């Protein structure tokens, strides 16, 4: 879709000037080629910058060199307040939009399109720190076992074997749900116990698969996948649906939700078990077991160790809870 060629939906009667459009397109190209951002992140940045261009057009701005700090602050304040066409943005979304705007101005300065960065001293809203939710090990084991045994037989066995393999795979590798459903059979090496995962920004990493996950995946590949594949049109995906096609993210979500419900774990509300819960649990349990945070960073495919370090806060919180309940003089 062409970027902001038609701003009628935003209530703007005049389109951005060619200079503004070129600047934004150049920045998005930079993010795509040099930064390797994912398609979803790029789509979010594109929407954020569309709204920013609408603000600039409303103010009569024709190029980024004419933007002052006050206009940037006004735009960010509008995002938080909302308007007739848009509801107020949550702090996290407003912070992302601020990042897009600040990145655009930094890019324009580096490229010589402007002589200064008006967003440099504009502070974006700080999202509240949200610690990842991790399940206790016993809850993870109960969740995995409710998916079905790897010795399942009968008419329901193929799907039961697939469900167990999928959940063991998610917890045994720390894969994102998109990485799991995107994995191909040729990416697996069950003899070595490894898999190639394709993550955000096209980054590929080799990660080990735990022994329980290897056993579950092998059982599925030998006893279930051939039958499922026979009714499909041929796909290299590891995990298949009942029609023989590649399992979708929604399908995988449904598998986890049903298993969590049977295991007596929450499936609704803020504490609901999600595919990312298994990823959080994987990271937290590794750190609890003594793994180095840099190793966990590589296993999770995080571009920055800062992203991974949030899990160390989870383990510290757990230590505090244990201390507070177990030490005789923990409380005054």
UniProtKB/TrEMBL annotation:
Q: Where is the signal peptide?
A: none
The source's domain of life comes to Bacteria
Which protein family is named in the record? Belongs to the 'phage' integrase family. XerD subfamily.
What HAMAP family does the record point to?
Recomb_XerC_XerD, Recomb_XerD
Subunit field text: Forms a cyclic heterotetrameric complex composed of two molecules of XerC and two molecules of XerD.
UniProt keyword list? Cell cycle, Cell division, Chromosome partition, Cytoplasm, DNA integration, DNA recombination, DNA-binding
- Location of region: Disordered: 114-133
Residue ranges of every copy of the Core-binding (CB) domain listed in the record: 18-109
Q: What is the official name of this protein in its record?
A: Tyrosine recombinase XerD
Protein's job = Site-specific tyrosine recombinase, which acts by catalyzing the cutting and rejoining of the recombining DNA molecules. The XerC-XerD complex is essential to convert dimers of the bacterial chromosome into monomers to permit their segregation at cell division. It also contributes to the segregational stability of plasmids.
Please name the catalytic residues of this protein: 176, 200, 276, 279, 302, 311 (o-(3'-phospho-dna)-tyrosine intermediate)
Q: Report the source organism.
A: Micromonospora parva
The listed locations are:
Cytoplasm
Keyword Transport in record: no
* Chain ranges of the Tyr recombinase domain: 130-324
Do you know which InterPro entries this protein is assigned to?
Answer: CB, DNA_brk_join_enz, Integrase-like_cat_sf, Integrase_catalytic, Integrase_recombinase_N, Integrase_SAM-like_N, Recomb_XerD, Tyrosine_recombinase_XerC/XerD
| Gene name of the record | xerD
């Amino acid at each position: 879709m062409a970027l902001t060629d038609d701003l009628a939906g935003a209530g703007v009667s005049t389109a951005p000037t060619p200079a503004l459009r070129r600047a934004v397109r150049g920045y998005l190209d930079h993010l795509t080629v040099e930064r390797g951002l994912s398609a979803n992140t790029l789509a979010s940045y594109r929407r954020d910058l569309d709204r920013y261009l609408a603000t600039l057009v409303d103010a009569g701005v024709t190029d980024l060199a004419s933007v002052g700090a006050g206009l940037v602050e006004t735009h960010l304040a509008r995002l938080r307040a909302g308007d007739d066409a848009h509801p107020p943005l949550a702090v996290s979304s407003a912070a992302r939009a601020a990042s897009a705007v600040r990145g655009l101005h930094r890019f324009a300065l580096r490229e010589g399109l402007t002589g200064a960065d008006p967003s440099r001293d504009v502070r974006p809203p700080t999202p509240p720190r949200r610690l990842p939710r991790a399940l206790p090990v016993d809850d993870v084991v109960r969740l995995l076992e409710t998916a079905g045994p790897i010795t399942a037989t009968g008419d329901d066995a193929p799907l039961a074997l697939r469900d167990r393999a999928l959940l063991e795979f998610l917890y045994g590798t720390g894969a994102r749900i998109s990485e799991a459903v995107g994995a191909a059979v040729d990416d697996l090496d069950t003899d070595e116990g490894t898999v190639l995962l394709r993550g955000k920004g096209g980054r590929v990493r080799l990660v080990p698969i735990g022994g329980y996950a290897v056993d579950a995946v092998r059982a599925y590949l030998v006893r279930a996948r051939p039958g499922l594949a026979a009714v499909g049109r041929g796909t290299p995906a590891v995990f298949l649906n009942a029609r023989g096609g590649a399992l979708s993210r929604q399908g995988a979500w449904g598998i986890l939700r049903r298993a969590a419900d049977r295991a007596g774990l929450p499936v609704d509300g803020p504490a609901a078990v999600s595919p990312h819960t298994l990823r959080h649990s994987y990271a937290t349990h590794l750190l609890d077991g003594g793994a180095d945070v840099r190793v966990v960073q590589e296993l999770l495919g995080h571009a920055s160790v800062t992203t991974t370090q949030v899990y160390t806060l989870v383990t510290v919180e757990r230590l505090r809870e244990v201390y507070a309940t177990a030490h005789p003089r923990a409380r005054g």
